[in-house]
Amino acid sequence: MSRTYKIAVIGGDGTGPEVVREAVKVLKAAAGRFAFKLDLQDFDFGGERYLRTGELLTDSDLNALRRFDAILLGAIGHPDVKPGILEKGILLRIRFEFDQYINLRPVKLYPGVECPLKDKGPEHIDYVVVRENTGDLYCGAGGFSMRGTPHEVAIQTSVYTRHQVDRCLRYAFQLARRRPRKTLALCGKTNVLTYIYDLWERAFHEMGAREFPDVKREYYHVDATCMWMVKNPEWFDVIVTGNMFGDIITDLAAITQGGMGIAAGGNINPEGVSMFEPIGGSAPKYTGQNVINPLAAICAGGMLLKHVGEERAAEAVEQAVMHVIARKLKSLAAGRMGYGTTEVGDMVVEHVAAGSAA
Ligand code: IPM
Ligand code: MN
Fold first, then answer.
1. Residues assigned a catalytic role
2. Atom 8 in ligand 1: residue holding the nearest Cα
3. Is pTM, for the whole model, over 0.90?
4. Which domains does the chain have, with CATH numbers?
5. In terms of C-beta density within 10 A (0-12 exposed, 13-18 middle, 19 or more buried), how is residue 240 classed?
6. Do the Cβ atoms of 7 and 72 come closer than 8 Å?
7. What would the pLDDT profile of 269-311 be if each residue is shown by its tens digit?
């Protein structure tokens, strides 16, 4: 019996639709080679629809998305919409509504990619950040008082429950256990955030000692984490952290693996509907020019395949991306690849379709 996956495709804003188109081409090539089927449906959520109709995500949009095995997202962010509206109303809304409590961000430097870190190569940069994706400063708790007056007060509060922390830690420990180095680093700030990261640290050691004695535990403050990610990235295997620190350190991590042209992530609910995306933005200034790098979106598609259980297809996508980077591209930067967006997609497709011989 053939496997069929229902995938919701949200191109979104700016260059999002262009990169997602390439990722979909690659998914189709993988489906052909590995004998599974894709049932794809496009959704037009994003800045254009919001400006036209005032709608961000309606209840019926959310109900529609619930019927899918996974979601592939391009990018959300429009120059004519005030920052925060589309992010909160679409991207964060999907993360929260579907309780996608893990934001998984692999950090891997592929051979041939120029790394901004001196003397570091692919053997030094191969780790995964497990960013908690539902709590922290992202929970929306806070407000103003006396807004616009000289005495204005603004409060924005970080919130974590033990349940949120535990489920994220368990995912991270399980992931670390499957990797050769079996090392999990908690990134926190126990010297200042003495409530939030005290909770994380206690939960980390309790769970580690009780359920994962085979996984080595390390702890780093977030500021030091940034330093070591630059100085000694080879120290890291799996890093687990809260939502805000995870957001920040994964941009730093992304630039060490070649930048937004390659960095992908998954918003994962292991029991529900997960969403995969290139972690860069909508890059509006490049829209429609066929210069943006689609590899991050293609890698997000690869993560999606792995998530739905098509491990071999996911592996083939990664191999194809590595092949194209090592043999073809001049750079990962938009406009400097030596090829257009669609040509890069075509080269990956060709390699996925043909296997390692291409
Ligand atoms: C990311 C982005 C989002 C975040 C923004 C667009 C809301 O920066 O996915 O890392 O902060 O999570
Ligand atoms: Mn971010």
1. 138, 189, 223, 247, 251
2. 247
3. yes
4. 1-113+260-358 (3.40.718.10), 115-257 (3.40.718.10)
5. buried
6. yes
7. 999 999 999 999 999 999 999 999 999 999 999 999 999 999 9
